[in-house]
């Protein structure tokens, strides 16, 4: 389900023209594994460009890009922080985000 939601988000991002210079197939190709998901999340969720994702940035990503309901987006963000925050600073760096993403099945069993 989470994989489906992510793919829907990528399609929506493309259709909304957030990154209109990328063709749809290129966006989907880049996001075929957790590394691609990580790149998409770091690019679109990191609003202050500090290379760290706060719970609020993750929540906003899932609320506005994935279109989850506010409560679902909040719960998703909290789960990401719980699953990935190794240094307990309530933010995820790329390594922590990668580790959190590995807990989810984005690769369809590859």
TrEMBL record:
<dbReference type="InterPro" id="IPR011992">
    <property type="entry name" value="EF-hand-dom_pair"/>
</dbReference>
<dbReference type="InterPro" id="IPR018247">
    <property type="entry name" value="EF_Hand_1_Ca_BS"/>
</dbReference>
<feature type="signal peptide">
    <location>
        <begin position="1"/>
        <end position="20"/>
    </location>
</feature>
<keyword id="KW-0732">Signal</keyword>
<keyword id="KW-0106">Calcium</keyword>
<protein>
    <submittedName>
        <fullName>Uncharacterized protein LOC111126270</fullName>
    </submittedName>
</protein>
